[in-house]
Design brief:
This protein is of the alpha/beta class and 432 residues long. The protein has two domains: 228 residues, Type I PLP-dependent aspartate aminotransferase-like (Major domain) (Aspartate Aminotransferase, domain 2, 3-Layer(aba) Sandwich), CATH 3.40.640.10; 100 residues, Aspartate Aminotransferase, domain 1, CATH 3.90.1150. The strands form four sheets. It has a seven-stranded mixed beta sheet with strand order 2-8-7-6-5-3-4, with helices on both faces. A four-stranded antiparallel beta sheet has the order 11-12-15-14, covered by helices on one side. α5 packs parallel to α6 and α12 packs parallel to α14. The protein is globular, with a radius of gyration of 23 Å.
Length: 432
């Protein structure tokens, strides 16, 4: 067999194996693509929490059953129906040489319903980082303006503001949060001055999984004419979010974490009162409601979807909608309850290990489905590597804010057995 023949054979074998593994048949060409018709591939017999078959839910995820993955806060694996949606849509669009932009209307509707807001306030973007960049640049801040952020922000939530400090001379004002959660609203209030123009904060911190009082902070911002900018990367898909109730000015999140959506997807929200008052930073096809080059006429769409300029990947947008369908089938309240139940079980087990300090608030008002802890006198970042290499348990080391700790994420595919295995590993490590 020649090198060229061998290479062709391997390529066909790999591609064939991929489609066989994911369970996606090759699709016949359609005469038109008005929609991608995908039968629901996942149904539960009941949404009664006490009767939910969690093993069936686990079976929807493609990674091996013996892999102990407790790092959804970094990257959420997609269930089979999401993968199928993306692959089938790509196949159909490529068969028809279509960009599929018109198909994404359904996803906008699904997101709006999921977040209890209007369709025109929602756009599909790449990730939470892109969303925070859009926010930072859209506000058109100037030298001397202050933006308050905390020392617990993810780089994606902090860097866009730091870039404005370098580019424009705005002032990024750092605040330390109360790790018990109780005093954070007052800490934020105390930091505000006459120069404060925006407060950017995480709905759930990436560091210790602490929930901030988003509704109360947004209300305070409105009373002071300050923009409220929420990073929801660690919240969207973890528990129910009602943007009509919270009423932030901006909310951004990734689709690839707790939503279990395709990588390269995110959600961006802008309150309708700002759509006409704030101009977009980047524009292109689909940003306009009226456009004529010869007369140099351009009017922006009265929708946040003006941010979806140019040709986009419609397949992953539809996959994001499929991820919302998956979570909705389980019930977002059930998802939240399962995560909290697993987290509480782990917290109880950690209390038996005297060398360990829990950094996540115990009060359920300020916590959800994540637990961050540290072993005193140890390099916890190295212990995280040890847990991965020796015990095959995937967690995430927390270096942010010099916490030197380990974060555990509890998703709907995780089990009490996995938590028991982690507790056994930690007891062995602390004894050495």
């Amino acid at each position: 067999m020649s090198k060229a023949t061998r290479r062709s054979f391997l390529q066909k074998s790999i591609l064939g194996g991929l489609f066989y593994t994911v369970g996606i048949p090759f699709l016949q060409a359609n005469n038109s693509i008005e929609s991608v018709n995908l039968d629901s591939e996942f149904k539960l017999e009941t949404n009664n929490y006490n009767q939910i078959d969690w093993k069936k839910i686990r079976a929807q995820f493609l990674f091996p059953k013996n892999r102990q993955y407790l790092n959804t806060a970094s990257l959420g694996p997609s269930p089979r129906m999401v993968v199928n949606t993306v692959c089938k849509t790509i196949e159909q669009l490529e068969t028809q040489c279509s960009h599929g932009h018109h198909l994404t209307k359904k996803t906008h509707q699904q997101i709006a319903q999921f977040l209890n807001t209007s369709v025109d306030e929602i756009a599909v973007i790449r990730n939470a980082t892109e969303g925070m960049n859009i926010i930072a640049r859209t506000l058109r801040l100037k030298a001397g303006d202050e933006v308050i952020i905390s020392t617990h922000e993810h780089v994606g939530g902090a860097a866009p503001w730091m870039a404005l400090q370098k580019d424009l001379g705005i002032v990024v004002k750092l605040i330390d949060l109360d790790v018990e959660g109780e005093k954070n609203l007052q800490i934020i209030k105390n930091a505000v001055t006459s120069k404060t123009k925006a407060i950017a904060f995480s709905h759930i911190t990436c560091t210790n999984g602490m929930k901030l009082p988003a509704k109360e902070i947004a209300a305070f911002c409105r009373s002071k004419n300050i923009y409220s900018c929420i990073d929801g990367a660690q919240a969207l898909g973890m528990f129910s979010i009602d943007l009509t109730d919270i009423q932030p000015d901006f909310y951004t999140s990734s689709g690839h974490k707790w939503l279990f959506g395709p990588k390269g997807t995110g959600v961006f929200y802008m309150h309708k009162k700002w759509i006409k008052k704030l101009n977009p930073v980047f524009v292109g096809a689909y940003s306009d409601s009226k456009y004529d080059l010869n007369s140099l006429t351009m009017e922006y769409r009265d929708s946040v979807q003006r941010e979806e300029y140019g040709t986009r990947n419609a397949a992953i947008s539809l996959g994001l909608g499929s991820a919302i369908e998956f979570i909705s089938e389980i019930g977002i309240e059930n998802v939240a309850k399962r995560g909290r139940e697993l987290a509480n079980y782990f917290r109880k087990g950690l209390k038996d290990i005297v060398e360990i300090e829990i950094l996540t608030p115990e009060n359920e008002k300020f916590s959800a489905s994540m637990i961050t802890f540290k072993i005193h006198g140890k390099d916890n970042l190295k212990i995280n590597q040890q847990l991965n290499s020796e015990y095959k348990i995937r967690l995430r080391g927390i270096y942010e804010n010099n916490l030197n700790s380990i974060r555990v994420s509890f998703a709907i595919f995780n089990t009490f057995k996995e938590i028991d295995n982690l507790l056994i590993a930690l007891k062995e490590i602390t004894k050495n």
